[in-house]
Amino acid sequence: MRRRIRAVSALGVLCGLVLVLSACGGSSSSSGSSGGASTSSSTLKPALDGSGQVLNNGKMGGTLNVFQHEDFEHLDPGESYFSLDYDVLYPTQAALYMFAPNSSTQIIPYLASGMPILSDGGKTVTVHIKSNVHFSPPVNRAVTSADVAYAIERGANPNVANPYFPSYFFYIQGADKATGGPIPGISTPNPTTIVFHLTGPYGSFFEGALQLLLTAPVPKSYAAPLDAKKPTAYGSTSEVASGPYMIKANAQGKFIGIGYQPGKSLTLVRNPNWVRGSTPQPAYLNQININIGGDQNVIGPQVLKGSNMVDGDMPSASVVKLAYQQYYNQLIAVPGAGDYYVALNNHTGPFANVNVRKALWAATDREAMIKASGGQIVGAVGTHFIYPGSLGFEQAGGDKGPNVDYNNYPEGNMTVAKKYMKLAYPSTNGVPPSSYTVKVVGSTGEPAAEQAAIANHAVQALGFKTNFTLVQQAVMYGKYCGVPKQEIDVCPNVGWIRDWSDPQTLLDPTFAGYNMVATNNSNWGQVSWQDFPKAAGGTYTSGPLTPIDQAMKSAETAVGTTARTDAWAKVDNMLVADAVAVPWDFIINPNLKSADVRGINDLWNVGAWDYAYTSLDNP
To answer: Which of 280, 357, 546, 549 is 20 to 30 A from 594 via CA?
Structure first.
């Protein structure tokens, strides 16, 4: 969903709480059942889900303390594509539009003064922006449409390499050839108007992209010298804010070592130039202190028993159980929060063979992976790639997913796995070559580390040797799984949240070969990579399309909800048929708070706490 997700949720620790719950266990060696991928039913009381929260009756003032195991990946709005980063960037960077916390489908104006205006049969999109939104120091002036234009243009700068620029902004005329300079299809006739000229009648789809952070204004005079560095230093050492908050910085906008200590802490303070009412957020809190590092088994109880605290990460399974049993009103489990899957290298190594991919899908104990997170209160077995609550979910197979044997045993089935290994290696009766060591890179912290270990065990069960590495999740994405030249074979902890309600935002950035980039890449499995031979400098050039890419290109041009839903459901089915990855969790994401925090959850962003709406009972 929006983007790459932090670390995980799901299905079995709460078994001890259930009076009526069958088949709560499961074994990777089990022969399973033949009824498709389904999970146990029970009489568990649902957790609070964040719906119905009142957004604007909080108290002003106070400091919120956030505790999280993970660090941030990118604090530059032009680079960011990680849900944890969004927790900080949406309160500090005024994108043209935003989702209100209580909606995962409808955008509202943020920097814009009204909704987008479509004309010329959907080929032109016009946005008017407010005149009273101001940059933080040291820029200290009103935002203009030229700042929005530069923000989008820099997304094509290879030093920035915005990961969703090819997916959504190539619809702008000339954007496909942009390298960071002016884009012919963007015009700014006056300081409060920006016009997008598209390559076709894509306006109704493109307007969804205008709530992405790439549209948050960036002042060229300040950022251009930083953008000249490789990679850009904007967002890593210095930046300016346009939202109600800013990362604590000195008078020059430098925040590194001041408001941000990598691996340790990040501090948000008010943007002194923000005018109340200029943007939608009430911005109750005076300050947000984010503490980075620590054990989730320690953080969770600390938050539940403490004051003025929230957990900024996914709690461990034992903590979810504790919260459900003893702190029910402090656990918010948000459905439709995204999906997790095991990314497999479709380009090189053993998983370039479709039968090895199917074998691993069959061998993976998906139930065990989600049980590591906290029970059926917070997840369900993933069976395909369009997740619940998204357009196309039912058409693509619903809860059970496509009826193929490698998908029909959520607890794992080695008999089916061995069948596919024999098809992959017929001359050795399914035994893989001993000369290859599979590189598996997962995420540290619980429950992600345990889930990665389960996937690693499944690889070993197929007969492969593995090199199993755990790193911080931001490092996993930024240094390993998101860099194609690293050629990682298996990434067990990757996940995705839709960018908005259209199913293209689930499948296009993550599986289209034509959207691959050399860094900050979201097609972690390098699906359809063969279309894009590596060129000098580690970039990719287009070539003939694979059947999956052809289906995606066709689906992109579909007009109308029914046509688009059907077209992208077909793509989902093709991805399952090719076993491009192993989906294992339809997420219902758990979030924890102290009793005296009036927490507001972003339903569009894994239910994360929205710092610009959250308040304290006793500030």
So the answer is: 280
Residue 291's closest CA among 266, 257, 262, 259? 266
Task: Please tell me the distance from the alpha carbon of residue 512 to that of residue 260, in angstroms, as a whole number.
Answer: 35
Contact 346, 529 (CB under 8 A): yes
Angstrom distance (rounded) from CA 78 to CA 476: 20
Q: Collapsing DSSP states into helix, strand and coil, what is residue 503?
A: coil
pLDDT digits (tens, 9 = 90+) for 404-450: 999 999 999 999 999 999 999 999 999 999 999 999 999 998 889 99
Enumerate residues 6+ apart whose C-beta is below 8 A from 524: 343, 481, 482, 488, 491, 494, 510, 581
Nearest of 593, 561, 574, 565 to residue 527 by alpha carbon = 574
CA contacts within 13 A on the Cβ side of 536: 0
92, containing H or E segment? helix 83-92
Q: Give the span between the Cα atoms of 521 and 532, in whole angstroms.
A: 13
Question: Omega into 8 within 30° of 0, i.e. cis?
Answer: yes
Residues in Cβ contact with 536 at an 8 Å cutoff, skipping those fewer than 6 apart: none
Its pTM stands at 0.83
Task: Calculate helix-pair angle for 220-227, 145-153, nearest 10 degrees.
Answer: 10
Long-range own/partner contacts, residues 425-429 (CB < 8 A, 24 or more apart):
none
